[in-house]
Amino acid sequence: MSDNDxxxxxxxxxxxxxxxxxxxxDFGTVxxxxxxxxxxxxxxxxDSGGLPHWTEPPTGEMPSLALDDVDAWDTFQERSxxxxxxxxxxxxxxxxxxxxxxxxxxxxxxxxxxxxxxxxVQDFGGEREQMRDxxxxxxxxxxxxxxxRRAGPRGAAAPSGGARDIPTAILTGVLLVGGFLGALMWxxxxxxxxxxxxxxxxAVEFYSKVTEKxxxxxxxxGILTCAAAPLAAYWIGDAALPLVFTFGxxxxxxxxxxxxxxxxxxxxxxxxxxxSTVWIGLLGSYAALILRYSVSPxxxxxTGTDTLLMVVVAVVANDIGGLLVGSMAGxxxxxxxxxxxxxxxxxxxxxxxTIVAVFFVGSRNGTWxxxxxxxxxxxxxLVMAPLGDLVESMFKRNLDVKDFGSVIAGHGGVLDRFDAxxxxxxxxxxxxxxxxxxAS
Length: 440
Known about the structure:
Layout: H1 3-11, E1 21-22, E2 29-30, H2 74-77, H3 87-105, E3 121-124, E4 127-130, H4 166-186, H5 188-212, H6 219-235, H7 241-257, H8 266-292, H9 303-329, E5 333-335, E6 339-343, H10 344-362, H11 371-399, H12 414-417, H13 419-435
Antiparallel strand pairs: 1-2, 3-4, 5-6
Helix pairs in contact: 4-5, 5-6, 5-8, 6-7, 6-8, 7-8, 8-9, 8-13, 9-10, 9-11, 9-13, 10-11, 11-13
């Protein structure tokens, strides 16, 4: 019904003479825009004035609201201080809570035991140390997590642990050389027992040290593989090595299948166990392969023992020359982050003494008896022996240890003493196959 209809109703007597239209108690009286009335127009108060009629053209002015001079956003930024702390402390708490909430919302797939964010930092005696289990495992009840300190800054010296006892080291070295020469003159089987003992003890030292540093290697399977490699090489030859390491890897890996969960760290532990079998077991088995030529009917009887004597003398000479020249004239570090004590001058000094020793022993050797053979053997040793020493130093730096053991007085562990030989033996073996010095 339009306004005109209502007016017609009033004019025809359909309503009273009062202003507006009464709709009863539900809505009350409704006033229309063009009804005459003495009541004032709707006002918002202040100087805003009355509302314009809807038929009037727009003025383009923006309505204004009379509010107090207060920033409404301040109520969302302010936090009432608690009784025990100030506003700054409350803001810090809010920031920490937000950081923890964002950390919880971060998407994580799997687990990474090497993740820096998963390593709680504790302070013992003023020294901040990284406390972690490298394998990702959870420490057992009542067991203190292993303490592992990260390697120092680049160029920092390795943990000293005290200077070498030179007189003791010399005496021990003389005894080792005497025992080795006596085994060479007796029979190849005696030398083979020395090789087996060196490989086995070196494996025990390695697994013991990495276990102290938080790894959980398959120790029994690893030591068994390292010991079986030289035995199989001496008995059957190099054709047996793939079989040994195939079954060794299977035994190492399957052992972790029986673990209670992935927290046992199968990947890093299988990796470090297998790495040591290759480094110690496989490379050490080349000494047995060289020695096997002394029991082969197709070559002269002393071929294996003569070759083994040559390479051992060459490695010892390389070590002594590097130590003497490096300590007296060493200025330029060879690889500072690996070992700051190894210098280029020491490398040159070791190379010179290696060549001299090989030529001296070769002139009294019945197998290697030409200058070209001596020079080739010396070159193989002076390249591979320092590399073997550097690799072992690199592993020790990564584990933050000085030595792998203390079995040999004045020299550290067996692995510390025979690290250069582990790299020199394979090079010598394949050089012997190429040159065949017994045929010259």
